[in-house]
Amino acid sequence: SSAALFLVSRLFVWPYYRQTALATFIVVILATVLFMWWKRVKEKEALHTLDDYFSHNELVTALSFEDDKDPLVQSLLTKALENVEKAFADFKARNKNLLRPKALIGLFGTAVVLAILYMFPAASQIEAVEVEKEKAVIEDVKKEIAKLEKKAETKEVKEQLKELQDTLKKTETAEEALREVVKKQKELALKEQQLKDKQTASNEGASDDKGLSKEEVEQLK
């Protein structure tokens, strides 16, 4: 499944395809483990398998009777106990087929394919990684703007930063995001300079204006 995702991601730009493939791999592994646990050998099945190594199936026959005081049952149990060591030894010596060549070859082949696909990404995959980086930069910028908005002391600055955040939501590249940030910085710097000029003119009495308002004074702090 992970190999299939890697192959599909080579056909078009799919951001976070690596994370998706890893998550899919983990889910498949967990599902496989749960399936193996659910399909584990039960006690009844194990007894029947062991019973196959008794010459006359004495084990299951003896255990199938509820009345273990019955002479016939006692006789079967005695015979089963006499043969249990040999039966168990034969059971342990059976061909277990723990290693499944086809499954191992399949796993190895999948691992090789995944390694090759990862080491030699397609142009679409390289572009997808770049898109991921762009998105990460944009998210970092958004977080920094959000912090600045919380620290802003005036309503106008808060509104300007809120407007910038709304603009950043529409940006698709880090270059666009940084361009918007620089633009807003220039606007705020120009506003600050205008307030300083107004304050200077007011102090020197060179303007007919009443001077800075309380909010404008706060913006200069």
UniProtKB/TrEMBL annotation:
Residues 207-221 have a biased composition (Basic and acidic residues). It comes from Lysinibacillus xylanilyticus. Keywords: Membrane, Transmembrane, Transmembrane helix. This is Uncharacterized protein. The chain crosses the membrane at residues 20-38, 103-120. Residues 193-221 are annotated as: Disordered. It comes from the Bacteria.
